[in-house]
Amino acid sequence: MRALCWEGVGKLAVRDVPDPKIRAEGDLIVRVRASSVCGSDLHLINGYLPAMREGDILGHEFMGEVVEVGPGVRQHRVGDRVVVGSVVACGGCWYCRTEQYSLCDNSNPQPVFTEKLWGHSPAGILGYSHAAGGYAGSHAEYIRVPFGDVGAFGVPEGVPDDSVVFASDAMPTGWMAADFCGLTGGEVVAVWGAGGVGQMAARSAQLLGAERVIMIDRFPDRLATAAERVGVETINYAETDVLEALRELTGGRGPDACIEAVGMESHDVGPTYAYDRVKQSARLQTDRPTSVRQAIMACRKGGTVSIVGVYAGLIDKFPLGAAMNKALVLRMGQMHAQRYIPMLLDRLAAGEIDPGYLATHPIPLEQGARGYELFEKKQDGCLRSVLHP
Ligand code: NAD
Ligand code: ZN
User: Fold this and answer.
1) Whole-prediction pTM value?
2) Ligand having the closest approach to the CA of 240
3) 197 Cβ inside 6 Å of ligand 1
4) Which of 36, 40, 169, 259, when mutated, tests ligand 1's pocket best, judged by the most ligand atoms within 8 Å of its CB?
5) Could you read off the pLDDT of 229-264 as tens digits, one per residue?
6) Domains of the chain by range and CATH?
7) Does residue 169 contact residue 60 with C-beta atoms inside 8 Å?
8) What is the pLDDT of residue 319?
9) 37 CA to middle of ligand 2, Å?
C-alpha cells in the first residue's frame, strides 16, 4: 500500500510499504477514508519528540471503513464506518477502568526514553513515534487498530467523513481542555492557539458554560475564522501586549480559566533531536513571554490553567511562584479520547459542534508532504489538511 512516511527531520515522502495485518485478537484493519494533519505531527516531523525512525508512518486523526476484524472483536463488523481515537488503550487496566485512557498501562510496549525522562510511560498513540508505542499511523491506505472494541466508534449516519474525522483527536482534545477548567457557568476563558485544537476548546468551553471566550494567536485569518465560526473575542499577540489586553478585557481581574493549545514550538527552545538535547532544553530557555507562562501570569487568582499543547522535555522558565501564590489549579495531559468520543459524536450529529470547517484543505495522500507544508506555514488559510488515500 501507499503511505506517508517520515524520512528524517523535516522530510516526508509517500512510499510503498507492506499492508498491515491482524496481529492480536482485538485488532481491526481499517481502510482509511480521511486522515487529518495535527499540530502534534509538527513536533514529530521537526524532531521535537526525538523518537521517530526513518520509514515511520505518520497520522493519528482519522476515520474509515472496517475491512478485517480479529477473532476477539465484538463491537465491529466488516463494512462498518468508524472513527478511531488517536490514543491506544486496552480498556481493562486500572487507568482505562477509571477513564484515564491516555495513561493506559498496556498499550505502549518498549517505549523509547519515556521511563527515563518522565518517570513512567503514558499510553501508546497511533502514528506517534517510538515514545508512544511505535504504531504505524493513518496517513496510509490501511491501518491496524489495536484494541478495536475500545478505540473505534461507529459513525452516525449523515455526518460527512471530513467532519467526523475530527472526533478522533481535535474535538476530544478541545473538550478535555475545557472540561479541565471546571466551568460552572458564566466564566471568561482565554485560549492560546487558534489551531484546530484551540478552536474546538473554545467551542467546548461555550457548551460547558463559559460566557466569553478570548482567543490569542498571531495569524489574523485564524483569529477571524474563530470569531466568525465560534464567536470568540480575539487578541493578536504579534501586535498587542497579551497580559495587558486580557487585564483590560476582564476589568483587571484576569480570565477565570486559561487554556494553552499551542505546544513547545512557541517556546523557542529549538528542536531536540536526541534525548540529550531534550535534557539540555532547560538551558536554551529565554525570558521571552511564552504561551504557558502567559497563561499562568494572566489567570485570575484561584483560577485554572489547562494545558493541552504538547511538551516533551524541560521547557520554559515555569513561573511556579505565580501559580503557587495565586493558588492556581494546573491541569494537563494527552487527551482521554475514549472518554469523550461517544458524547462528542452525539453532539456532532445534533449539530452542537460542527468541526467540518477545520478541513480547509482536502488533499490526495500522494500530496501529503504538500499538505503538511501548507499546514505548518499556515499558508492559504490552512487550518488542517485532510489526506485522502
Ligand atoms: P496548530 O499548529 O494548528 O495551532 C497552533 C497555533 O498556536 C498556531 O495557530 C500558532 O500560530 C499559535 N501560537 C504559536 N505561538 C503562540 C503563542 N505564543 N501564543 C498564542 N498562540 C500561539 O496546532 P493544533 O493542531 O491546533 O494543536 C495545538 C497543540 O495541541 C499542539 O501542541 C498539539 O501537539 C497539541 N495537541 C495535544 C493533544 C493532547 O492530547 N493533549 C492532542 C492533539 C493536539
Ligand atoms: Zn489500559
Assistant:
1) 0.95
2) 1
3) yes
4) 40
5) 999 999 999 899 999 999 999 999 999 999 999 988
6) 2-169+335-388 (3.90.180.10), 171-332 (3.40.50.720)
7) yes
8) 83
9) 26
